[in-house]
Amino acid sequence: MRAGPAQRGMTLIEVLVALAIVAVTLGSAMRASGALVHNTERLADTLAAQWCADNQLTGLRLQGQFPSVGDSDFSCDQAGRSYRGVLQVRPTPNPNFRRVDVQMFDDRGDALVRLSTVTPRYRY
User: Residue 123: which residues within 8 A CB-CB, separation 6 or more?
Assistant: First the structure.
């Protein structure tokens, strides 16, 4: 029998370094996937809140009345979630127009979206 070149195995230090590298890589991957899930949930909430705000502004336009100045609260259920909204009507320098802002909040009270429009007194 011929003796071949001496074969060396990995030392304990090399194995520990490799495990540390793998652990750091997996930790980074878990953090990135958690951030992705959070961003996806935030996007879904923002989209549903935007639908609520748009529905409120569309309902105001469909009433065909010139809105009176002031604030009002409303709630909206969209995509299985409940959102709280604030409708603010403000005068403009031209008395024939009003600025209307709708701001939507989630259940924690964080602002999700704000939509604004200007409504005319007269419809053509």
Answer: 64
